[in-house]
Amino acid sequence: MIVNSIFDNTKTAFTLKSDSELERAYFLFKMISKEPLVRIGTAATRLALNMNLPVEGLIRSTVFDHFCGGVNEKDCISTVENLYTTGVHSVLDYSVEGKEEESQFDATMEKVIELTHFAKNKTTMPFSVFKPTGFGKFKIWQKITENEPLSDEEKGEWERIKGRYEKVCAAAAECDIALLIDGEESWMQDAADDLCEQMMAKYNTEKALVYNTLQCYRWDRLDYLKEQHAKAKAGGYKLGYKVVRGAYMEKENDRAEEKGYPTPICESKTATDDNFNSVMKYIIDNLDDISLFLGSHNENSNYLALEVMSAKSLLKTDQRIWFGQLYGMSDHISFNLAAAGYNVAKYIPFGPVKDVMPYLIRRAEENTSVAGQTSRELTLLKRERERRKL
Ligand SMILES: Cc1cc2nc3c(=O)[nH]c(=O)nc-3n(C[C@H](O)[C@H](O)[C@H](O)COP(=O)(O)OP(=O)(O)OC[C@H]3O[C@@H](n4cnc5c(N)ncnc54)[C@H](O)[C@@H]3O)c2cc1C
Which of 29, 49, 141, 233 has the fewest CB neighbours in a 10 Å radius? Predict the structure, then answer.
């Protein structure tokens, strides 16, 4: 039977935080709960970094250290080991974004392969991860998604993207480390989905090794999942999905409006929640064919997953179900789930400060726009502060 309040335990949630870290987290969430401050702060930070002003130290001691593991993987090791003392696993996420050079795509691929080898035989790191646009230009993904012809040069770029996918999937198979592929904007995602489908057909013959992402703020994702399920059954391979709500909602809605096509986003938050929960339930109903990585900070969805697992008498440690949250967010979910015996992993982003700025800005904006979530973090931090005083 599920105890329907396990996430309320702040002692477990913040067990790894010293008093001063607790204070810093409180201060940070207080700051990013103020929308004008985030707006001005992100614009000023972008400008300062572009002008090479010395603001890295300030960024590091505030948002960066809270949401990232460090500038390189070595910096992250102590965090990985520390998290594992509580049963929480790590997914090291090389979060460099917005690159446009072939040499940079190769470097990102090499980094993912290196991390996969690094994770081999380590119980602390069961997954590797990358973003499609980390391996090739956004424009190429978009052109293929929109059925636009590629120039000869672009055809070469596309072949190299496919080659990079092949190499990381082969490394994942060799090391037996599952590979999560992030979801991005809908106007490039079809190409990424199709390529990932090919990788799943090739590498998921025994179990889910390669995982695609389903962004459930898209109303078409349940049908897409069912379609993929039928194909996988016919093709004799397994599916793996990271299920999230989606991080690009405003961008998606703005573009749809600007270009005059129906938005791919659900009509309301409730519709997204229902879609997310339906996708999650569909997967748990079909665990023999599909594995789940549930990436969410939503308490209700996480509780629902526990209920569905319990109703089906699934083991908490069933390797086909993982729970994931981002480093620096929703510790009350991660640490309490791990303490209760479930499979939990934190995404730990890392990379040079300037290169992880798009990621950090998304986190700041997400915590500003999702007012409920920020006030929840603040309430929990405050409660823990008071508990420690007592
Ligand atoms: C481990 C992990 C991995 C992730 N990987 C990815 C990824 O690969 N790609 C990606 O895009 N995101 C990714 N995310 C980010 C994820 O999409 C965000 O955490 C999410 O936006 C917040 O949703 P939530 O489930 O935590 O819950 P909530 O806070 O309950 O939901 C907020 C989300 O609901 C949706 N929403 C809000 N208002 C509306 C509305 N009016 N109408 C319709 N929908 C609405 C939006 O998606 C919004 O972000 C990941 C998150 C985690 C934890």
Answer: 233
